[in-house]
Amino acid sequence: MAATRRLTHSVAVITLNNPPVNALSYSLRRSIIKEFVDASKDSSVEAIVLCGANGKFCAGADIKEFGSTSVDSVSLNHINDTIESCKKPVVAAIEGVALGGGLELALSCHYRVANVQSLVGLPEVLIGMIPAAGGTQRLPRLIGIPAALDMIVRGRHVPATEALQLGILDEVVKTNTIDAAVQMAMKVLGQPLENRRLGTLPVQAIPNVDTFLDTAVKRAKGQFRGAQAPLACIEAVKATLHLPFLKGVENERVLTASLWSTGQPQAQQYAFFSEREVGKWTTPSGGKWDKVPPKPIQTAAVIGLGTMGRGIVTSLSKANIPVIAIEQDAKQLDQGRQAVNALLDREVEKLKLQGKTSVPGNGLGSVKFTVDLGDLHSVDLIIEAVYENMQLKKEIFRKLSSIAKPDAFLCTNTSGLNVDEIASVTNRPQQVIGTHFFSPANIMRLLEVVRGQKTSLTTIATAMSLGKTLGKVAVLVGNCPLFVGNRMLGPYLEQVNYLLEEGSYPEEIDQALEEFGFAMGPCRMMDLAGLDVGWRSRMEQGLTGTNAPPGAPVRQRNGKRYSPLADLLCESGRFGQKTGKGWYQYEKAGGRIAKPDPWVRDFLDKYRRTHQIARHQANSQEIQDRCMFALINEGFRVLEDSIASGPEDIDVIYNNGYGFPKHRGGPMYYAANVGLPKVLSTLENYSKANPDVPSMKPAFLLRKLAAVGGPPIKEWRTQLGNTSSKL
Ligand SMILES: CC(C)(COP(=O)(O)OP(=O)(O)OC[C@H]1O[C@@H](n2cnc3c(N)ncnc32)[C@H](O)[C@@H]1OP(=O)(O)O)[C@@H](O)C(=O)NCCC(=O)NCCSC(=O)/C=C/CCCCCCCCCCCCC(=O)O
Q1: Residue 356 pLDDT level (bands cut at 50, 70, 90)
Q2: Of 57-61, 111-115, 266-270, 357-361, which range is least confident?
Q3: What is the arrangement of strands in the sheet containing 97-99, beginning at the earlier edge strand?
Q4: Residue 103: is its pLDDT beyond 70?
Q5: How far is the CA of 102 from the centre of ligand 1 (A)?
Q6: How remote is the C-alpha of 393 from its chain's centroid?
Q7: Which fold has domain 520-610?
Q8: CA distance to 198, 278, 548, 641, per residue, from 692 (Å)
Q9: Which ipTM was obtained for this model?
Q10: What pLDDT shows up at residue 318?
Q11: Which of these, 109, 225, 395, 590, is most buried using a 10 Å CB contact count?
Q12: Measured between alpha carbons, how far is 312 from 470 in angstroms, rounded to an integer?
């Protein structure tokens, strides 16, 4: 962890060296300042170049050090101010990434040269912070308030070509970035540096700036629902208008301290590291991510071009993997082809915006459309994405057994069916695995990788590695009905139904959970997913419809409370967004604008009268507690059953697949934050009053952890043991 210095001509080249990403740890910062001060005093040095070892400039402050005392001992601001005020020209040579404190360091240099493949950005907002080493003050002075705000509030990683256009970079090169920076340093020798010191420049005025900033605040409040960092970013940038540079930097510090006191940065940083941890999968049999090499996937196929299949094809093609896309007849194939082509066109547009038009074939893998399963004889990996029907899936896997080459991997995109049962009809259960994508599959980051009993370690390694190649966060889970995410959704939605029965309206429930921070409330989510999906499954389970036990009480099944509300909606043709009516009404079938529906209110009021239910209108807190604690309780059961290997896995699943607010860390982190004794007592009280709702009976593991005072989440794993692991 050091910065090293060498002399090229009369230019001192200082290299940041702290693998893997040259994060600005305390010792690296101390070393940079020493080398820099020495170079600036050295009379044989006329100019200075700052670069990073191993093809990476710098990924910013060392996030692991936040909250520890070493953070401020040699502050990044001190380094930046020393660089900016240097009398010799200083050039940043950017390769790989210049993110957060890394870009702030580069912005304090007088010139910036970057490799065309590199990315720059101020992504602090994504870990609940603001760029607090002068970034909110220097960037607007360089590229203006609108462009700077867009980058800072969204935490966007900006490709070098775009950064050049924005004026962040002075030159972009294809090769030899450090040599180009040295050349630049020699070229500018003797030129005045005053107008290169961003901290001394005024910020460019824009018309109606107050309205512009007010709109930005409104948009951020709507988009980021309760996250404080985006608002603090806007506040910090706004200060460039009325505070001198140094005061603006002091303001960054005040805003950072205030953000820290909300607990949101800690939650988002936990989420950041959890995402990386889940990639390091292990199994009780000794399988380990770094011990089992994945098989390379050069070609893939997707069977079924419905919503999921189309997204998966697009995702594979985006990762430059040639795909064969299969449908059962010409008509469906044609519809699938049109939909996939439209999605791919959008991807090409995005690549163009990133300046990647010169990539051969636009950087997308080819897609071949066919109705012939026989075409799959030579592909490396096949993903079945037909609709959720066990018989149909088994029929396909039986056929694949004889068609696919012996070493091909067979994946099922089921969202909850038994992977072992599917694998059992094949001649290679060790190469069968669940790859549960989330809709839209070309956009959503989550991939649940479901291990069957016979799935081999190589198959796990290959599916996990494929997830990474597709730019997803892959989480290894065990095989049980509905796996992790959807299984936990069950008790959560059960509470939603009970709240509706008791007197809440859909929009009230959604509002409470959107205020909590969910991207979408549960009633809108059910409408979007299609109410008929659950209805069909309940019919298959004999809970409703013609298979329901004759004479069963309307609101009870097998001695447990049951809500028939969603069944009744479906019986009147209200399947959600697709039919234009569900818990809400929409402008048309397939419409997206949800409006509260007076019909639904009447229906609920009548239902309560019929069943003599006294109206209880729950407030937001009750709605949030009942829904969240139901979800969390099932999360503890998932851990007890070893379906997920730790609370971090559950949190990553919810943050990336279910619109859970990252600033709360994830449901299990949230539980730890609320305090497990409180979660337990709330569930106990509910359970006592409602013994016919077993899902709310506190889980054994919750009791166990609450009994020892609710330890910090990082200590939960040691309490888990791995008695009955399904991983
Ligand atoms: C794009 C990446 C850089 C690389 O991606 P990839 O190639 O896919 O690799 P990864 O798996 O993601 O990462 C590889 C390993 O590196 C680790 N890593 C990555 N970045 C960091 C980092 N910044 N710090 C530490 N470690 C990092 C990662 O965990 C992996 O480790 P492992 O192999 O799993 O062990 C990608 O990684 C990425 O996007 N990184 C994050 C970039 C980022 O967000 N940068 C911004 C950081 S914040 C910053 O720079 C802020 C600067 C201003 C300084 C302000 C200081 C104030 C602090 C105060 C806090 C306390 C307040 C107290 C208040 C009071 O009381 O007063």
Answers
A1: low
A2: 357-361
A3: 97-99, 119-121, 158-159
A4: yes
A5: 10
A6: 29
A7: N-(1-d-carboxylethyl)-l-norvaline Dehydrogenase; domain 2 (1.10.1040)
A8: 66, 36, 19, 23
A9: 0.98
A10: 94
A11: 109
A12: 10
Residues 6 or more apart in contact with residue 272 via CB below 8 angstroms: 63, 126, 127
* Pairing label, strands 560-561, 556-557: antiparallel
Whether 715 is catalytic is no
Return the CATH superfamily for domain 300-479: NAD(P)-binding Rossmann-like Domain (3.40.50.720)
Examine the pLDDT at 3 and tell me if it is beyond 90. Answer: no
Sign of the alpha-carbon dihedral angle for 156, 158, 163, 169: positive
Delimit the domains of the chain by residue range: 2-260, 300-479, 520-610, 620-720
> What Rg do the C-alpha atoms of the chain give, in angstroms?
28
Cα angle vertex 37, ends 36, 41, to 5°? 115
**Cα 414 to ligand 1 centroid, rounded to whole Å:** 35
CA distance 17 to 58: 9
- 551 CA distance to ligand 1 middle (Å): 60
What is the spatial distance between Cα 227 and Cα 663, in angstroms, rounded to a whole number? 6
Q: Does 352 contact ligand 1 (Cβ within 6 A)?
A: no
Cβ(128) – ligand 1 distance below 6 Å = no
What lies within 8 Å, CB to CB, of 325 at 6+ separation is 301, 302, 305, 309, 313, 333, 336, 337, 340, 367, 368, 369, 370
Q: Which CATH superfamily is domain 620-720 in?
A: N-(1-d-carboxylethyl)-l-norvaline Dehydrogenase; domain 2 (1.10.1040.10)
Choice among 234-238, 349-353, 703-707, 712-716 with the minimum mean pLDDT: 349-353
Measured distance CA(475)–CA(289) in Å, rounded: 12
Q: Which atom of ligand 1 is nearest to the CA of 64?
A: 25
Q: How many Å apart are CA 140 and CA 157, to the nearest integer?
A: 16
What are the two backbone dihedrals, phi and then psi, of residue 265, each rounded to the nearest 5 degrees?
-60, -40
Whether 236 is in the pocket of ligand 1, judged by its Cβ within 6 Å, is: no
